[in-house]
Design a protein that fits this description.
6 helices; two-stranded antiparallel ribbon; 13 strands; alpha+beta; Pnp Oxidase, Chain A; binds flavin mononucleotide; seven-stranded antiparallel beta sheet
């Protein structure tokens, strides 16, 4: 089946894109509002896309065409946020953070999620998160009436003891156990993994049993 996106409405495009581009990592973002209230909310339009500078991106819908979500408003006002990565243990609490609490509610407060002070930014990280990225706002882009793209620069990371081999900078996935988002209410675990050896062109030629060409 071929689909022309111009013939689909926004809801249909959302359904298709979020069903096809999976699994997406989940950022449970902690921010502090101008009045000092700590906010936590999950975002799966999330990824990292650079290391120099080290950048992450979040895609935020507006609640309606004019009102930003608390996360976007707080980041815009303070320029700081923390991305708490989500593992199997944190998944249910992450989902509860997406309840549309009234603006100004502190989800960590209501849900009893302990916060730990960050080193480089004002918002704290969640004690239960296996890893957290401390970020400063790099750019906030308003895209159309309904979307904001937050690009953040990672200025620090906290990784739970036992997850990182500090010498080789390798993460132990058996212990990390991050979850990914499929579409809607569906999630996946990352327990089943496989490796593919990356080949140079010369290695690929050798595997074909031939000479390098070109
Ligand atoms: C797993 C998950 C991923 C989500 N991803 C996004 C997202 O990428 N963008 C978005 O605007 N809302 C997303 N949401 C919805 C927000 O988390 C929800 O609207 C939340 O109430 C926003 O809270 P805030 O106003 O405190 O920022 C997601 C919800 C869940 C459960």
């Amino acid at each position: 089946m071929d689909l022309a996106f111009a013939e689909l409405d926004a809801r249909q495009r959302y359904k298709l894109l979020t069903a096809l581009v999976v699994p997406r990592p989940i950022a449970l973002v902690t921010t502090v509002g101008p009045e000092g209230v700590v906010n936590a909310a999950p975002y799966s339009f999330f990824n990292t896309f650079g290391q120099d500078p080290p950048l992450v991106v979040l895609g935020l819908d507006r609640r309606d065409r004019t009102t930003s979500k608390d996360t976007g408003r707080n980041i815009d006002a303070t320029g700081e946020f923390v991305i708490n990565l989500v593992d199997e243990d944190l998944a249910e609490a992450m989902n509860l953070c997406a309840v549309d609490f009234p603006a100004g509610t502190s989800e960590p407060g209501v849900l009893g999620l302990e916060l730990v002070a960050s080193r480089h930014v004002r918002p704290g990280r969640l004690a239960r998160a296996p890893a957290a990225l401390e970020c400063r706002l790099f750019t906030l882009m308003r895209i159309g009436a309904s979307r904001e793209l937050v690009i953040g620069e990672v200025v620090g990371a906290h990784i739970r003891d036992g997850l990182l081999d500090a010498e080789r900078l390798r993460i132990d996935y058996e212990r990390y156990r991050p979850v990914g988002r499929l579409c809607g209410d569906l999630y996946c675990r990352t327990r089943e993994r496989f490796a593919l050896r990356r080949l140079s062109y010369a290695q690929w030629c050798a595997e074909q049993g031939g000479e390098e060409t070109g």
